[in-house]
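idk why but the lab printer keeps eating my pages so im just putting this in chat instead. protein + nicotinamide-adenine-dinucleotide:
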Amino acid sequence: MGQRLNHFINGLASEASEGGRVELVNPVTEQVYGSFARGTVEDVDRAVNAAFEQLERGEWSRFDGAQRARVLLKLADLVERDSELLADMDADAIGRSPLEPRRMDLPNVLANLRAAAGWANQLEGRTIPSGGYFGTRTLSYTVREPVGVVGAIVPWNSPLMITVWKLAALLAAGCTVVIKPSEETPQSALHLAVLAQEAGFPDGVINVVTGYGNEVGRALCEHPHIAKISFTGSPEAGREIQRTAGVLFKHVALELGGKSPQIVFDDASFEDALRGCSLGLFANQGQICAAGSRILVQRGIADRFAAALAEAARAVKVGDPRQPGVQMGPVAKKAQWERVNRYIQLGIDEGATLLAGGVSSPEQGWFVRPTIFADARNDMAIARDEIFGPVGTIIPFDDEADAVALANDSAYGLAATVWTADLVRAHRVAAAVKAGAVGINCWSPLDANLPWGGVKTSGIGREGGFGGALAYTEEKVITVLLPH
Ligand code: NAD
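predcted complex ->
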């Protein structure tokens, strides 16, 4: 029935060892439209061994930087050829408007693959002046070696883009990988693996094992041949992964959630701030790690801004994202629908003023109305927890010090935006805010050359840019004795 997806291991599609399947459900119609292989410990073992043997065999590691660049560029061309198909796969699987991944994710994917082709040739070592060895001169130098087999664990909200953030960097560094896509969105990673084969990546370099987090994801983290886990997802899973990685001495990079503040000063361009806050709240139904869901507004304009944002929320057309004019589809899954509604009810119960949206009644499809709360306090659950849905919480502030204190009073620290006409103040606030990325008069710019990641509960490590590729290498030092 419908799509029937399998693992991609060592260049071949393969069923799960125990024959298990997981159903794919359309979030608009709630109909089953296909299934994928339910991976097992044995499947993970097969995939990791293929990636490990590829590294040991040396076929891929004999590719020098220029050769790695060539296949990365070829892969980028093939992704560009299939970009509509890939964007639609990601959109349809979670009920997102296909225009968003076409305009936002795919250009970023292509930029990442092409930037990584440049990084592949720049992973240079250093020559280090050293003090000699028992009176004899020495020469010491370092080389950058691939860290080994990487386990890449990916969420459902922007699956191809997040997969490629990891893939482009680790391939530039000469690693091999087992990708574990989300249960909601296995399609684009599997298609990417097939394109990589066409581009000339040897078998075993890129493997994909589909299945559940607590089965496939866990087995991947525990596998002895995995050198590094690169995880994007929830803090709960991240905590468990870091524990496992700690016990087994694996490298780990965690890109977790956020509760990112948008700080709107009263001198900001009202229209620009409004547009930026709407985008930061409603793009991808609010299911974006950097969603600007905590909107801190200077008291003098807070009521006017809240009313305008509520108006913008009411104007969003919600429905089947494949229908013309529809701007917002459903949230990705039933559990997400229940979670978002639970938080909306909590906001009402806690006494925030509901200006737009509200709890949605169950109907066909997991639709949520864009929701705006005003007059909220930073200690409310709707201000503290990541909701991962189209829900904005507006909190008034008095002055700059108040704004910074509120922005930093959060368990998270992924992104922040400062809206102001005073650029001196903008830089001062950007320096004071504890976050991995700050936008000044722009919400969450995506760029392949910029580092991305958070502090505190938002994670550990950075992806993106040249530093992202370096993070997939080990620096080895070699010292040679130079007798007279
Ligand atoms: P999730 O943690 O439930 O799942 C993410 C991935 O991890 C999935 O592939 C899942 O199968 C797997 N997984 C789950 N439990 C696991 C375990 N115990 N061991 C190994 N793997 C496991 O998250 P989600 O619901 O898919 O995504 C939403 C979360 O991701 C949000 O918190 C969001 O903020 C975060 N996110 C962060 C970024 C970022 O760049 N910081 C980007 C996108 C999403």
